[in-house]
Amino acid sequence: MPELRKDPVLGRWVIISVERGKRPTDFVSPSQKKKGGFCPFCPGNEYTTPPEILAFRRDGSEPNTPGWSLRVMPNKFPALQMDGMLNKKGEGIYDKMNGVGAHEVIVETPDHNLSLATMPQSAFEDTLWAYYKRLTELKKDTRIKHVLIFKNEGEAAGASLEHSHTQLIALPIVPRTVKDEIQGAKKHYELRERCLFCDIVYQELSDGRRVVCENENYIAIAPFAPRSPFETWILPKTHESAFTHRNNSFAELAELFQKVLKQLDKILDAPAYNFMLHTSPFNDEQNEYYHWHIEVMPKLTKIAGFEWGSGFYINPTPPEEAARFMREAKI
Amino acid sequence: MPELRKDPVLGRWVIISVERGKRPTDFVSPSQKKKGGFCPFCPGNEYTTPPEILAFRRDGSEPNTPGWSLRVMPNKFPALQMDGMLNKKGEGIYDKMNGVGAHEVIVETPDHNLSLATMPQSAFEDTLWAYYKRLTELKKDTRIKHVLIFKNEGEAAGASLEHSHTQLIALPIVPRTVKDEIQGAKKHYELRERCLFCDIVYQELSDGRRVVCENENYIAIAPFAPRSPFETWILPKTHESAFTHRNNSFAELAELFQKVLKQLDKILDAPAYNFMLHTSPFNDEQNEYYHWHIEVMPKLTKIAGFEWGSGFYINPTPPEEAARFMREAKI
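Output (structure tokens, whole complex):
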């Protein structure tokens, strides 16, 4: 069973993932990603993954066989596991609990050679529906307090398999970064009685310099203080506290989100990147202070001693310039 | 002039470092570190760096010429610059200020082929004295609120030059991670009237499983909730709030610190690593709740979407096992 441990100084949680247990020699020669080798996510290889949780099949094909356009299954080497109780315990001044939670993989396309940037827009829209379906399903388990949906694209961004996929980790606690964002947003709300993210959208639309692209209901911006060059946030223009409280379709979001990824691919030659979906925790999904959004971070700089030690980031590309390069990308 | 910008949601500061200004094409082909090429840190090449701030010369040689055993100079591409005023400003809902501060390089040895792990112990001791001297000197500038000393060893850990060196960034604000650590330590002190780090040292010494090595006055431990495999903390055993408030020599610390680096080199085949020195901020150097320490983090895993989005870390190596491997290393 994985273990969740809390750092007593910072209150930061760490998952000690024994399923992935590593001895020193496992780190000495970094594993090379096999290009063109066997792919467990390609159609025909369904038997090599844990049984699917969800799949979109328009041809009525059987579960765990080819015929799907999108497929969701548990991660074969899960960071957290969905059985048992939390069993919270102290160990002197330290706190720990069992690593209860879910770790799933969303394979967005059967085509090994497509990415989120290059797949048909309808497949991107289906991917967003899959996020929605998994979030609403996992919400029913009362042990789960929060779900983080994220993507590691490219080896430099942490992907261990080449075939395009998103991951999801369902957690028994609201993670620190989400808590900190909510706290910051709440402070602003208490002071001004307005949502901080709505204020950001308003100021960015008036200013214009950091706007990457927009459509009727969504906007993509280079944030004012980006951690990495070309970091881009995607937000609904009007207030929405949770991704799962949407009542319109995902077509418009798919269009804008994919445009951002196409722009990054164009100007940075298909960079490695991460994105994270930040949404209100399950126990407070309808609120006036937090605003769901997606943070896209190309992997262009290294996190080094200064960043680890200070929590500061050094960014060599002003966001105003990054946004201009992205706006001018011919896609 | 570099600019410091604050993220309005998380309060996280970012240095927009125009001196290092990067266009998209600068990221497309990652720069390769030249092995065996020209080295600005080697003796005879002093003219290629900014003039030295401090050097240890036992032979009475002239500044900026060979003959030194340790040399400190400003970073040629500084993230912050030491002229002008902070000029704090708002921009609508955003906050920014001039990037006033210092960014220095401490070249620990004239020998291109030595590392902190392999240099003579006396050279390691001199390195610690150089940290001490720069900290006490920079404290005199009232614009400087905090100094972070850190090392990036190896390209994977962010080093752009091969010749062993430490860096120092002097900041006009206390950085977030240090503030958060102090806040956590203060909370513990308010509750128990004891230093949290002293309690950690006490518990680790009684438990023993996470002790890496120790001598009379210092201890190295694998922390209870490490962010990365083989993360190691070095602390004085009795309470010391600031690195600069030491009154004994650095010999004992050099011995233990170097032993940790030798152990890591041995079991992980000279891994890339970062270390950071955390000490009390200048305006509160003598206190009962914070305890200076060094955090050593081998660069073995990647920071990916989950870590960025949650502030959690996934660690495949339990610290009890990491400490045992290090204790058993034949160095």
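Chain B is about 25% helix and 25% strand.
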